[in-house]
Amino acid sequence: EYVQLDQQTLLASLVLTDAEIDSEYQQIVANFESQEQRQAAHILIEVDDSLNDAAALEKITAVKIRLDAGEDFSKVAKEVSNDFGSAENGGDLGIVAKGTFEANFEQSLFTLAQGEISQPIKSESGYHLIKVLKVISSEAPSLEISKAKIVAELTTIKAEQMYLEQLEKLKDLAFISSDLSEIAAELALEIKLLPAFTKAGGSELLSQNSKVIRASFSDEVLKDGLNSAPIEINQQNAVVIRVKEHLPVRAQAFDEVAAQLKDELLTKKASLQLEERAASAIQEIMKTGDATASAADFVLKTQLKATRISAEAPAQVINKAFALPHPKDGKVSVDSVVLADQSLAIVIVDKVIDADLSTLSEEELKAINNALAARLGNQAYQTFVTQTHTAAEIERL
Fold first, then answer.
1. Which pTM was predicted?
2. How many Å apart are CA 171 and CA 229, to the nearest integer?
3. Which of 37, 31, 28, 30 is nearest to 145 (CA)?
């Protein structure tokens, strides 16, 4: 028997409050606002050895008066700006995102309206006049549109947290509890029962899990009768198991295996009859080269120009066809092969069309030659090892 902690079950039980949803939505809105960009231009008057701070401020103030009087910002920037990288473009700095410039510069830039020119702004380089050429903002989706995604993400996060918290409780409870009842009551879990299974696994998916099988037959669980430690099936599922009943190895009664034995004997008998019919058909086909008569007992299928990668016929048929000898003297090559469903197929090859090697490049031919040489070398080595082992006198101590 077992209890299972399942993250998806926890997820389905969660209900979010309107306050939680609204708080997450406000973060989305704030994130969209933080992503706002602006196309800006500036005029820089540098503070350097030839122009001190006061003189630079006086000069930039005079430039501001000219702009306020209506002069074109781009023309004035080309004339007076000391930022030679942007001056040629009328002071244009291109598209600017937050976090690009100094705090004073950026604060002024992102508070201006489109087309507005700032007051002189002090930076490490000197004084600036900033003009916003364009505001590029993306509007946050409405709460109605965002709600489903918010609920899905928040419930997933909360379910993950709850699952990890309960997994820790499960570890403690599994260790101290004498059975599964206390665990089930504490964590609101259902005690479930697995049908009996062997070390080879059982009929259900859980009893086919190698971790569950190994824990079930461990000394602590099987002999000492303890709860298992939580077995993590995956990152979202964990189980604690306890042996309810142990069925030792025993000889099965005839009544228990009679039906199985009957099926096996009937299958074996049918297989032998099928092999006999196939052998007879193969002899007939080899004599006549014609499968028409045999097709009365079988389904006859024909595939023209089959290749090694043909998907029209079962892989076993294709492999057998390419393993058969080339037909000679007008006769066919024929043999039988067992298919994946244990049915039998008779494979008849009446013609082999050789590959046209003239279409291959020298590099392709070389690659094929190397692959064949490697295969033949490996076969020769394996043959040598087998023969040497067979001929050797080995004394085992």
1. 0.45
2. 6
3. 28
Instruction: Report the distance separating Cα 139 and Cα 88, nearest Å.
Output: 33
- What's the pLDDT band for 36 if we cut at 50, 70, 90? confident
Residue carrying the six token digits 């006859």: 300
Q: Helix 143-176 crosses helix 18-34 at what angle (to 10 degrees)?
A: 120
Residue 381 predicted with pLDDT over 90? yes
Beta-bridge mates of residue 232: 238
Nearest to 74 by CA among 86, 87, 90: 90
Enter the tokens of residue 207. Answer: 């009893």
Query: Given the structure tokens 């004997």, which residue do they identify?
Result: 265
Q: Which residue has the tokens 């979010």?
A: 16
125 in the Ramachandran plot: left (φ > 0), alpha (ψ -120 to 50) or beta? alpha
Q: What is the C-alpha separation between 105 and 122, in angstroms, rounded?
A: 8
How far is it, in rounded angstroms, from Cα 249 to Cα 240?
25
- 126: Cβ contacts below 8 Å, ≥ 6 apart: 44, 45, 46, 47, 48, 56, 60, 82
